[in-house]
């Protein structure tokens, strides 16, 4: 868990984001892995009155002294979290790593990526692939690796790169397409023959009594369509509200039997509220229409797994709590949890 949390912070730091409130309550264990959530304090180190924002036990000493929060402050908070959660006896190597995370000098602390690598090695987790290697690859390895990852330098992209699930696939080619055409032709001939036989039976009477005049032909009773089962559930909560603004958190649960890869959640704010800041996702907004797209690190949701994001928004001062009526995930309706 510590390795995955450190890797998540490293991804945030690489994007220029400092969490500023790393603590156990903001590290969630889900079916698809560990998630670092609630980036609500990532904008602005201090309030207008100069008060510090954060959880006191996890705030780095230089931040308490007035310095601007930096990635090293997140590493300090991660060190406090590790010190509280690692079960004894802690191996000497890990104890030394935690001690370096808690160093009073932020310049001597390791990076979140370095902490993640050390913890992953201790937990025997596979390392994250490095973009370069000092050992030359064997003949043909470049082509195989490029075909697997879709990163191929100056050569043209492969014909079938990795896609988001709702992107239409390429048209079939080769023998499969030929066999489908053959089946379609054969099926068309069979349908034509069946139509001729039906007409002959109608003209000859087929040996059966004709229907009574004036009596309508019997029809099969129609079966009412059953509503499709929702593929997702959405838990939406307003966690803070003030004059002209509010903060909300959203949790998506995958109710389907297949994993999701690259989700998009959409809804409408009826009174035109606008999102001003978002974490754990990206947004597009046209008037009151909102679409939130997954970040790279939370794009996958396993069956019955969850993904979370949050945002700050603007609202009119006297308006009631901003709450959407419906949500859709990749175009399919979601049940509100």
From TrEMBL:
InterPro entries: CBD2 (IPR001919), CBM2/CBM3_carb-bd_dom_sf (IPR008965), CBM2_carb-bd_dom_sf (IPR012291), Kinase-like_dom_sf (IPR011009), Prot_kinase_dom (IPR000719), Ser/Thr_kinase_AS (IPR008271). Residues 126-181, 208-228, 315-337 are annotated as: Disordered. SMART domains: CBD_II, S_TKc. Its EC number is 2.7.11.1. Residues 1-125 form the Protein kinase domain. One of its GO terms (biological process) is carbohydrate metabolic process. One of its GO terms (molecular function) is protein serine/threonine kinase activity. Keywords: ATP-binding, Kinase, Membrane, Nucleotide-binding, Serine/threonine-protein kinase, Transferase, Transmembrane, Transmembrane helix. Residues 225-337 form the CBM2 domain. The chain crosses the membrane at residues 183-203. The keyword Signal does not apply. It is an enzyme of class 2 (transferase). It comes from the Bacteria. Pfam families: CBM_2, Pkinase. PANTHER family: MITOGEN-ACTIVATED PROTEIN KINASE KINASE KINASE 20-RELATED (PTHR43289), SERINE_THREONINE-PROTEIN KINASE NEKL-3 (PTHR43289:SF6). This is non-specific serine/threonine protein kinase. It comes from Actinomadura harenae. The lineage of its organism: Bacteria, Bacillati, Actinomycetota, Actinomycetes, Streptosporangiales.
């Amino acid at each position: 868990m510590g390795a995955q949390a450190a890797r998540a912070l490293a991804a945030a730091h690489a994007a220029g984001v400092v969490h500023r409130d790393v603590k156990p309550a903001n590290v969630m264990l889900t079916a698809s892995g560990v998630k670092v959530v609630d980036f609500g304090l990532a904008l602005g180190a201090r309030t207008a009155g100069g008060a510090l924002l954060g959880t006191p036990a996890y705030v780095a000493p230089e931040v308490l002294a007035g310095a601007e929060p930096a990635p090293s402050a997140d590493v300090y908070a991660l060190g406090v979290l590790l010190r509280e959660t690692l079960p004894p006896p802690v191996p000497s190597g890990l104890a030394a790593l935690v001690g370096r995370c808690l160093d009073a000098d932020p310049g001597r602390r390791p990076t979140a990526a370095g902490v993640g690598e050390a913890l992953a090695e201790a937990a025997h987790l596979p390392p994250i692939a490095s973009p370069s290697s000092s050992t030359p690859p064997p003949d043909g390895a470049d082509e195989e690796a490029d075909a697997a990852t879709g990163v191929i330098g100056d050569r043209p992209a492969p014909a079938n790169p990795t896609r988001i699930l709702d992107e239409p696939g390429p048209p079939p080619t080769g023998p499969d397409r030929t066999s489908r055409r053959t089946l379609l032709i054969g099926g068309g001939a069979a349908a034509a023959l069946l139509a001729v036989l039906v007409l002959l039976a109608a003209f000859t009477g087929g040996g059966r009594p004709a229907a009574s005049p004036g009596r309508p032909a019997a029809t099969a009773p129609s079966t009412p369509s059953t509503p499709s089962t929702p593929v997702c559930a959405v838990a939406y909560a307003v966690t803070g509200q003030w004059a002209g603004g509010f903060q909300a958190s959203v949790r998506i649960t995958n109710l389907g039997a297949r994993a999701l890869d690259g989700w998009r959640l959409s809804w409408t704010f009826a009174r035109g509220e606008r999102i001003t800041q978002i974490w754990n996702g990206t947004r597009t907004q046209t008037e009151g229409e909102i679409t939130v797209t997954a970040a790279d690190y939370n794009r996958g949701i396993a069956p019955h797994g969850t993904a979370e994001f949050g945002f700050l928004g603007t609202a009119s001062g006297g308006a009631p709590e901003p709450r959407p009526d419906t949500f859709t995930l990749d175009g399919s309706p979601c049940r509100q949890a």
